[in-house]
Amino acid sequence: MATAQLDVVGIGNAIVDVIAHTDDGFLAAASMVKGSMTLVDEARAETIYASMGPGVEVSGGSAGNTIAGIASLGGRAGYIGKVRDDLLGKVFRHDITSAGVEFPTPPATDGPATARCMILVSPDGQRTMNTFLGACVNLGPKDVDADLIARAQLTYLEGYLFDPPHAQEAFRHAAGIAHDAGRKVSLSLSDSFCVERHRQAFLQLVDHHIDVLFGNEGEIAALFETPDFRAAVERLRGLCELVAITRGAAGSVIVTRDQIIEVPAAPVSHVVDTTGAGDLYAAGFLYGLTQGKPLAECGRLASLSAAEIISHFGGRPETPLKDYVGAA
Question: Where does the chain show beta strands of DSSP type E?
Fold first, then answer.
C-alpha cells in the first residue's frame, strides 16, 4: 500500500451558509422545528431569506466544515462536492482552497444554483437550518475523484448528502475505492431526521462499508429505534470498529469492540452558536486518528475543536485550531 499523501478527503454538500439571529416566535410563526434541518425548495429559500434578519454569509456544509477544520489543525485534506459556476460557487471554492484544501471537483455549467443554508440562531445558541441543496443534488459516482480518495488515509462521508439515489451510489463507489486502496472510510449520521428517512440504508452502509462512525445521541437512538443509549452502544459494537458519539455538555463517548472511553466536553465561557459543533468534533477526532494519536487524545482534540466553533458565529474556525489546541 502506497503512503498516503492526504489525511482525510471529505464528500458532502457544498453549501454557503447565511446565518442570522432569531427568536422562538419567528420560528413558530414560520412553522419551523427548533434545532432541526429542513430541506426547502428555491421558492421557500427565497421566502425565508426575505423575512429573516440581517445575515452573515460564510461557506459551510457539514463535511466542508470538517475538512476546513482538519486543515486548520495542520492536516492535509481534500474535498469533493458539487457547486455551480455562479457567484456562491466561486465563494465556496475560494474559501475552501484558501484554507489549504484540495478541491478538484469542476463546477457544473448548467442546472440548479449553488446550495445555500439559512441558519437561524436562537438566543440559547440552538440553530435551525433551512437548506436549499441546489447543485448538490446532482453529485454522483462520476464526481468521485478516485485518485484523490486513493491518496488519503481516510474518506469522510456526510450523511446529509444521502438523500438522492445517485449520491448513495457515490458513497458506495467512494468506499470501494478507499478500501481497495487499503484506506479507511468514515460516515457522519448528520441528523436524526436524515437517519429516520434512510434507516435501513444507513445500517447496511455502516455494516458493509464504514470503519469510523460519528453521531449524536439522538441520531444513534434513531438508527436503532431505541431511547436506551447503552443498548444502542452495544448494537454499534457489532456493526462498526470505531464509533464516536457526542452528548452535548455531557461530552462524548468513544466506542470500540473492546472498550468505551468517556470524554468530557471542553469548557466554553459562552455558547454563541452551535452551528458546526459536530462537524468540528469530527475534524479534531479524525485529525488525531490520522496522526496516530490514542483514542482518548482524539476525543480531547475533538472536544477542543468543537468548543472553539461554538464560541462564535459560523461553522468554520476563527482561531487557527492548531494554535487553539496547542494553547489549551
Answer: 6-11, 15-21, 37-39, 56-60, 77-80, 115-121, 127-132, 152-158, 184-188, 212-216, 242-246, 252-256, 260-263
- Measured distance CA(276)–CA(39) in Å, rounded: 17
CA distances from 269 to 259, 260, 265, 307, 310 (A): 32, 28, 12, 9, 10
Q: How many domains does the chain have?
A: 1
* Each residue's pLDDT tens digit, 129-177: 898 999 998 999 999 999 999 999 999 999 989 888 899 999 999 999 9
| Distance separating alpha carbons of residues 78 and 149, to the nearest angstrom | 8
Mean pLDDT of the chain: 93
Share of the chain above pLDDT 70, in %: 99
Amino acid at 10: G
Domain-located, residue 45: no
Does 112 have pLDDT greater than 80? yes
- What share of the chain in percent tops pLDDT 90? 73
Q: CATH no. for residue 177?
A: 3.40.1190.20
153 within domain boundaries: yes
Residue 168 in any domain: the answer is yes
3-state helix/strand/coil string of 127-158: EEEEEECHHHHHCCHHHCCHHHHHCEEEEEEE
Query: Could you tell me the residue range of the domain that residue 198 belongs to?
Result: 6-12+61-111+135-327
Grid cell digits, residue 33: 422545528
